[in-house]
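A.,

Following up on our hallway conversation. Structure tokens first:
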């Protein structure tokens, strides 16, 4: 349950689930409006990438267009995971560099974690898979059977 507001006459409940087909009939009756929130559109995905992986002023722009193109079918959670994976790549490079050294490096001589590179994005894309598409047909069926049809 994400929110609960009480007034003198009404109680407003906002709930969310990733598995709506597992809700029982009693719960479905109590949730008057059932709205399927779709996967992020390209514009939303780009905004998420720009927020989670900002380009550094002195570095090359990150390939946001490539990220948007290659993440069709990713949920917001999948995108966050992909960004974490990409962001870890410079740290992994640094750890490999330090592990190759024979002696202990003094703190004041430790190299800095480098910037995110395009190849870090490629590695993250290879290592991260979308999860929401596994149940896409179930979401569509649930929405057609129980969803509130919101006209735009």
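Then the amino acids I'd put at each of the 152 positions:
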């Amino acid at each position: 349950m994400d929110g609960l507001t009480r007034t003198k006459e009404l109680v407003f409940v906002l709930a969310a689930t990733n598995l709506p087909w597992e809700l029982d009939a009693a719960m479905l009756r109590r949730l008057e409006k059932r709205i399927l929130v779709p996967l992020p559109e390209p514009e939303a995905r780009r905004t998420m990438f720009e927020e989670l992986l900002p380009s550094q002023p002195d570095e090359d722009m990150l390939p946001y267009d490539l990220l948007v193109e290659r993440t069709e079918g990713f949920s917001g959670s999948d995108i966050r995971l992909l960004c974490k994976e990409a962001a870890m790549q410079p740290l992994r490079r640094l750890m490999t560099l330090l592990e190759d050294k024979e002696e202990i490096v003094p703190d004041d001589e430790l190299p800095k974690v480098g910037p995110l590179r395009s190849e870090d994005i490629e590695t993250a894309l290879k290592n991260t898979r979308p999860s929401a598409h596994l149940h896409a047909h179930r979401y569509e069926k649930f929405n057609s059977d129980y969803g509130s049809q919101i006209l735009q």
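The longest helix spans residues 76-100. Curious whether your intuition agrees with the design.

B.
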